[in-house]
Amino acid sequence: VFEHPHQDYTRTLLAPFATTPPDAASEGQPLLTVSRLDVRFPRKTTWWGRVSEWQDAVSQVGLTLRAGEALGIVGESGSGKSSLANALMRLT
Question: Are 57 and 83 in contact, with CB atoms under 8 Å apart?
Answer without folding.
Answer: yes
